């Protein structure tokens, strides 16, 4: 059976306030084309269809169009809810959609109830494990209130059902979780509970293929355990990601081959670092002039109007970070030690120089002295009234 594994669409999400709806629509066009052109027999979406529990109307319309197009191709689709989705909202109409070949698995109680598909070799049981928030589902599974406990209990139900199936039934599990060994990025929402969010890969032993969602980088934690990653970059920490889907061929004996299918890139991401003048003049940055750019300025003194000046060369500049590169304090003393014996005026002026990288001018010193003196006088007056 040929399976297309995708996840983490995050429909409705933006990148630094730039809408990605057009790019998400282009990805869904690509997904439908891949299903049609590569003879895909099942599509699995491992959670985070939307970016928020109450998605925008354009995001819902995009999702609705994708479902209609997949259903029109006659290719079964299995979808689970992720930690960004509202499981109850996403699951509305699951029964009706199932009759059209779109199978939603958003209820924890359904973890042991597979979608059973057939190919020339027999049955393949698809088990959808939606994101399981430990504190909310521990009673359903009579499990400890942690990720490993509830996910382990859900997989016990999977194995119990699989044991009742005809011999040779192959198994696919969809799960939305942070599995130990996976590489995170900055754009995943933290799911830590009690200081622990990761679950061991061994929980999934014995499953023919595990289609994971949650982490945004495409990666394989083993031959049978893979994250598809998000189809688009949702933070600059993903600038070096290769965005793709997994095309999985599962043969009659449960052996598999995997191929990465690249997703369209609406605009590359670039993280640039240097002084303002270096970024404006260095020819090495020419290939990034049409990219979405995050610029980190290392000037010791914050330059004037850096965003506007950089935008002349990099019109798609989205993020500006200041990280001044300054020599270490010459004497190595602590800040408290350096303040000993210094007056209020000197401490204030030194603070400005430390933060800005440049000592205050005479006019600024006058303002600082006046402010310090005013505070001192007010403090003395308050003490006198007590």
From TrEMBL:
SUPFAM superfamilies: Metallo-dependent phosphatases
CDD domains: MPP_Mre11_N (cd00840)
Domain Calcineurin-like phosphoesterase: 1-217
Molecular function GO labels: exonuclease activity
Domain Nuclease SbcCD subunit D C-terminal: 266-354
Keywords of the record: DNA recombination, DNA replication, Endonuclease, Exonuclease, Hydrolase, Nuclease
Keyword Nuclease (UniProt): yes
Gene3D superfamilies on file: 3.60.21.10
Nuclease recorded as keyword: yes
Top-level division of the source organism's lineage: Bacteria
Subunit note: Heterodimer of SbcC and SbcD.
Family: Belongs to the SbcD family.
Known function: SbcCD cleaves DNA hairpin structures. These structures can inhibit DNA replication and are intermediates in certain DNA recombination reactions. The complex acts as a 3'->5' double strand exonuclease that can open hairpins. It also has a 5' single-strand endonuclease activity.
Name of the protein in its database record: Nuclease SbcCD subunit D
Annotated gene: sbcD
